[in-house]
Amino acid sequence: MEQRATLLKFLVIIIIAVSLEALVFVFDAAKKDIRNLIYPTFLLVSAGLVVIGLGLYQKLTAQENINGESDREGSG
What we know:
By secondary structure, the protein is mainly α.
């Protein structure tokens, strides 16, 4: 349970960092050369994919966590 919370906090920090970096790159590319806009777009897409993966991880582990708690209550 503690490992799950630690992993979630770590991934949230990574998502925030990548999103902010992409936002800075978007404004930088808009000022300098619009052709370089593809790179921050990839960063934004990758941040979105990590958010989707994190949501799937939470959904799958929440069901496992509920089953694990009910098993412990029955054997206690």
